[in-house]
Amino acid sequence: MALHSMRKTRGCWGFIRALHKGPEAAPAPQKDALRRVFSGIQPTGTPHLGNYLGAIESWVGLQKEPGPVLYSIADLHSITVPQDPAVLRQSILDMTAALLACGINPEKSILFQQSQVAEHTQLSWILTCMVRLPRLQHLHQWKAKTADQKHGGTVGLLTYPVLQAADVLLYKSTHVPVGVDQVQHMELVQDLARGFNKKYGEFFPVPKSILTSMKKVKSLRDPSAKMSKSDPDRLATVRITDSPEEIVLKFRKAVTDFTSEVTLDPARPGVSNLVAIHAAVTGLPAEELVRRSAGVDTARYKLLVADAVIEKFAPIKSEIEKLKTDKGHLEKVLQAGSAKAKELAYPVCQEVKKLVGFL
Asked: What's the pTM value of the predicted model, to 2 decimals?
C-alpha cells in the first residue's frame, strides 16, 4: 500500500516493531484465524533505494513467516494522476520484474495485479458510502498533494485511501507493513473495519500496522525530504537499475554539510541519511559504521556508501534485465497471482454484499 508510497519496509517488518497508537480492537474471530499480510506498491517508475529498503526488502522477509502473504501491484491507485496507457502497461511489467528480482517468490506469496481483481473496486464503493467527506479532506497526503495543483486533485485522489482500505479488508488482512507517511491511512482502514463490524456484525479483523525499523530514506539532494521517484532533481534518487557510474555520481553529489567528520546526529541530516543507508544495505549497526569511519572524511565516506549500494543492487539489476526480456513469463506470473487473489476475494465480497443487503 505503498500505495502512494510504500515506505521503507525494511522489514517491512522485523515484526510488529510498532503498532499505531490508540485503542486497538481485537480482531474479529475468523474460521481461518491465520495471520494474513497485505501490502501494495504502485507501478510508477523504477523502484528506488527508499522503496527497496522501506518496503520490498521487508516483503521478502515476511514470506518466511506463517500465514498467507499478498502483494499487490496497485495499478488502480496509479491512475489518480494522469498516466500514459502504454507507459503504464510497461510499468506494470517492469515492477513485476523488479519485485521478482528482489526476492518476491510467487510460490511463497501471492503477487497480483490489483485491477485484475474486480472485488477491490466493489468493496471500495461500499466503504466509500461509510466515510464522511471531511475525514478524507483532512488527511495530510490529500492536503500535500493538492497544494501545488492549480485546480485541486481529482475525486480519485481524494478517495484513494478508501480503496486502500478495501485492498486490505478484502482479504481479511491482519497485518499491514506501512511507512510512517501512511499512518493516517491505516487509521482510516482500522476505523472502517470497526465501523463495518459495529453496523453489520463482527466480520473484518481490525488490521495492525507493522512499521519498518528503517526510517524514511531521504533525498540525496534535500535531506529534509524523502527520496521520491517524482523528484525533478535526477541526482536526488537512486534507482535499483542505475549503473555503478550513476550511483557513484549521485552519492558524490549528496548534500551534507561543512563538517567532514562522519557522525550520526539529527542536526546533520545529510550525513545521518548516508549512515542509515550504509547500515541498511550492509546489515551492520549504524553506530559500528560510524566507529569504523573514524578519520574518514565525508567525501570519502560517500564513495564507501556508494560501493555498498552498488554491491547490494548488482545481482538484482542483472536479474531485472533478464526477466524483462520475457514478457510472457511476467504476464503469466500476474495472471496466476491474480487468480489466487480472486479466490480469496470473491467469497469475502459476496458475504459483504449479503450483509449490506444486496440480493
From this structure: 0.86
